[in-house]
Amino acid sequence: MNQPQKIEGVAVQAGLPPFHGVRLHWETARGVGAIAMARLHTSDATALERALGALTGSAAGSNERAIPVGAIVHRTLAEIDDGIVARSSSCSAWVFPHGGPYSCTCLREWMCSRGAAIDENPSPRDAFPEAADDTEAAALQLLAHAASARAVPLLLAQSMCRRRVGPGWQPTTDDLSRSRRLMHWIDPPCIVAVGQTNVGKSSLLNALAGRCIAIAFDAEGTTRDAVAAQLTLDGLVADWFDTPGIRDDADAVERAAHALLEPLRRRADLLIEVSAPGKPCPTIRTAGCTAARLRVCTHADRDTARESAEAKVADVCVSCTERTGLDALAVAVRRALIADADLVCDDPWVFQPAAPLPNPLGTPTHE
Ligand SMILES: Nc1nc2c(ncn2[C@@H]2O[C@H](COP(=O)(O)OP(=O)(O)O)[C@@H](O)[C@H]2O)c(=O)[nH]1
Ligand SMILES: [Mg+2]
């Protein structure tokens, strides 16, 4: 009964798949990334040995390629990818494959088809048993999902912040609002650019991205669907949506595209109201839209631009063709979403679970 046998070069108990008893949790930021993080944990060290053996093609126990506690090694992963395996304790290990969504999906399916159980929502303490306290565990869990690198120092400081204010600290409404804004470092905020046709909305996205994502052309109605890209603006990773221009004589297709965009505008964290000299941004009334707003005037390269009514009321003036004003725009965007004061406040950040919403228009192109 249950004699050891060889499957794919790995000693396993007959009848038991190699990942039997192993829980798998992906701790990775949404979107495309360089490196993904998966955590394997069990209540039984032999089960983990067996799983790691199967994953890395090394036999458990006797094999010299077995991975001892504390080791960090580079291995082939199920002949799907290669990556780093770190054995953090007898019952848990981290696997760091490449972050491409396709190879991550293949690896996850490979492990699940061999008996691994997906851990959908482990508590921070379960996910990070090595953390010194609950705050550090929660901070590490958010860190693993953080889209923006600027989250790192702030998250790492949280354990000390908590100790400083003591156990009796109660967050005020301002603390909760600040904490919500700080979550933009974790889940990319949704930024939607709106305005008349031909003011430079598509050119603005292209200028910010540094490449052609949206077609910019001086025929009205060129952008008929929302086009999205993930941009990093003053260190803040954000999903930027370019939308069709608003005009009175829109045809049926354009009007339908606008109706489809209503949920996107409602979901926006920031509306960029784009104008150009002589072309103000129409008033955008969206029921239930609580987004912050930023007024951007394009065509700053034109001689008369500065004197225009649109430039005078704009928060930022840019030239998409000369690429001027883009850094100031990036800072203004970050400030509209996360205030400067939020960055220097040393009171605790009250964490909410990272729960990224799927993009209504699919995964944006990654910048
Ligand atoms: N000179 C100048 N031309 C611009 C600027 N922004 C956009 N344009 C031009 O304006 C036209 C319309 O731009 P587009 O981005 O398609 O506008 P959209 O309809 O709002 O998306 C194109 O010919 C662009 O090259 C700018 O800042 N300066
Ligand atoms: Mg356009």
Based on the structure given, which CATH architecture of the largest domain is correct? Answer: 3-Layer(aba) Sandwich
List SSEs in N-to-C order: EEEEHEEEHEHHHHHEHEEHEEHEHHE
Biggest beta-sheet profile: 7 strands, mixed
**What gap, in angstroms, lies between the N and C termini?**
55 Å
The H-level CATH homologous superfamily of the largest domain, spelled out, is: P-loop containing nucleotide triphosphate hydrolases
Shape from CA axes?
Answer: elongated
Radius of gyration: 25 Å
CATH class of the largest domain: Alpha Beta
List the helices and strands and how they pair.
Layout: E1 4-7, E2 10-13, E3 23-26, E4 38-41, H1 45-56, E5 72-77, E6 81-89, E7 92-96, H2 101-113, E8 117-118, H3 124-127, H4 134-145, H5 151-156, H6 158-165, H7 173-182, E9 190-195, H8 201-209, E10 227-233, E11 236-242, H9 252-267, E12 270-275, E13 292-297, H10 309-313, E14 316-317, H11 326-337, H12 340-344, E15 365-366
Parallel strand pairs: 3-8, 9-11, 9-12, 10-15, 12-13, 13-14
Antiparallel strand pairs: 1-2, 3-4, 4-7, 5-6, 6-7, 10-11
Residues 195, 197-203, 216-218, 222-223, 245, 298-299, 301-302, 319-321 line the site of guanosine-5'-diphosphate.
Structure description:
The chain is built from twelve helices and 15 strands. By secondary structure, the chain is α/β, with parallel strands linked by helices. It has three domains: 119 residues, 2-Layer Sandwich (Gyrase A, domain 2), CATH 3.30.1360; 53 residues, no CATH class; 151 residues, 3-Layer(aba) Sandwich (Rossmann fold), CATH 3.40.50. The protein binds guanosine-5'-diphosphate and magnesium ion. Magnesium ion (MG) binds next to helix 8.
